[in-house]
């Protein structure tokens, strides 16, 4: 048995030995241990180094509020930093390391910061690194220079760069009653609500339900509280209207009683079950909520209160009673209230010697004196701890007489030898969720705490959360809350009886013992009482400003242990009562939340994906797929040994020389139908569609209401009242929504129906000098000659027995056709086209070749229709009808949108024959040392096989006026500078003779 | 936040798309009154209290709804089809589901 483990007691499984490592050292623990309890049992006292001063730190608490013992858990290549050791359940193979130390935890080079403590006070960095007002490192630049070194010295754990392979998922839950917290109050509430037949969810952030019942040592219904907890939980488990969520932190309280929770599903397992997520994000919609979240014990602020071995009193009681671990053998208790006497007695019963109980109050009650006697402890009333001693573990402390009314110390300091100091500064209800729900906390002078106010949403509080710190009250309030939440009425059944040690719930209003040496308020951010007073002296009077200046309560623990002491010290400095200083409002999350859980199925193997009907064919024929939004599209069909560039150059070249085919099924397709369909399209598009003949297609451009370009595509008139609109792949959803909005909200009188038919049609675009011959070889039921199928004409026919619709239109600039068939026949038609194309040298091509040919033609896509460009910027003003108003027509002529200095679409040719990069800036004169003077940027680029040059499309100030002039690319990020010629965006076949044939 | 769609019933806000201030008046399409167009495109009421908004049930029936929502409390006091009653009567109601 390890040195500090008790022989019996606790809720751990001594028969089960678990092996784990901390900082590379192998340790063992037992089933039910946390990393904190297991290390404590192994005699480890030093858990980490503090944020700023690198002071040695041990465990302060046993729960989620832990500010000191933060560790990084390693799983393979993945590091998860800043996890409280108190919240890590050990499992075989667990590997954790300490943080913020170099080169090791016991010998840390930055511990020298402790000597500079006087100058490293609040705002030190801001004041010191403001920088000179002149010179190369003036102002902010100087701070940026210094920041690199400061960040290395001050901080928490470092995040890894490996991809997290874990799965995360999101669940929705609906219940009548959500109970948050499973202490005696929460258990009673869940049981009472369940008994009424309500659907209940009970969530607790700990792995074990029961809260204080697991360690209070009280007797409930004649049995040890832990036994009562076990029985009650078993009753709840047996009911099918109760869902129990252990390891689940309810972290956010939103409108309409929607709560967010994080369940740590498999962090505690050496090997998660197949398919089991690491974390599960719960969105819980509750009819009503019972908040039974308990209270946090507060530390006292006194010199040396951060030394390893100084711990919250209840935490030590918890380690002894729940984990069978003694935090020390010679224990001193320092308190301003009665609850710590119970902790002292618990440690005594577990086998520790209680050397002394130091109480700031001059006259503890007779009951407490009796408890001190029972613990065989010397009772030093009207005393206070003024110093602690020891390095990486506590060795002793100094005590002086203390007058709590005057806050004054007197007499000689007396040394007490101890290896553990328990402190208790009273209790603060965990009101975070209520505060998030909009409730403003109310100061209660007797409890010296902020208590939850009247509910603003449908929640009910119970137990310590409401400031009722006794188990008797918790049980009564819990049942009442559960009943009320379930809409039930009281049952006459008797409440469980509680035998508890007595005690007054009100602490003395003492938060700080002023002495020499650092007294910590916020342990995690190294904020001392003196820092708070310094902030006050420097003029920070608002609690919000105090918080930001000192960073009090802004660490990962969000000040769970430091808020109230910090506020009390601020109030004293201001000479105001605490409620007038006010408290800050709590915001979600209550505790850190993994980002993976928020993303959940939107990433990883459960992410939805859209596949075209020909997807499998592409894969089977060597396509490298490219994800475009949710769609997957072929990027290239590479031959073995080919680079991406070689592949797309080959594909584009073959298309222009013979024929090529590309899958265009992803284009958005909307059926626009009804008597007013043509009139509607006239309003939606900048050009006319009512004049379009049946059996013809037209290229259309849409603007937004504000006059900027929105989307483009072709629309086919299939019948008098029947149009098939195509949109860009990326904007399909947005265009649909745009049309629906105008039909529903603006022009409800129009008789038009719009239906998304994107997934109903498979599309293949086949283009090139031989494209018509290929069609002629496989299409039946219609001719495809120039007379039957002119440019922008539509015919219906069959390919290999399947009905198809063919429109002659071109994106590649070649003689080209789009062949549409029912989605289910997509692959069949595609394969028939491939077969028919074989004698003609048909290739299939991907997005790269598609992009290359469209750049050569100077066509625009989303890269140019980027929400900031107008039709004129893109030289599409010929499409702006003057005969009719359309969406955006009134706003497109605004001063700013017709200015001459706007960015306009141009073409670029690299004069140094090197590749260009998308996003690179265009400048008139290159200045590599100090890049400036952008006149525009590149939107798309490629190597053009048709021109044999590296070309690009760009948006450049002045546009057409610069045709034929020189400029330069300036791309400092990729170190690419060089001359370019600005030309027309129509690089290739500007007259369109190839596509008109 | 829950919005009670007159057709689909109470649904989470995640199913809806906010489509803007419902107080905007679109000028006559042929109007060249630039001030009016500017107001329509850019000016928004930003009341602290009840606000008339348009939401689309984009993850449901796709109808546009006129929602009166309190911007301070997120309390929703009324929801109706933007197209008006003649159209909402024509639609099947949630409780009419087969």
From TrEMBL, chain B:
Pfam families to which the protein is assigned, alphabetical: SoxD
Cited NCBIfam families: soxD
Protein name according to UniProt: Sarcosine oxidase subunit delta
Organism of this sequence: Mesorhizobium salmacidum
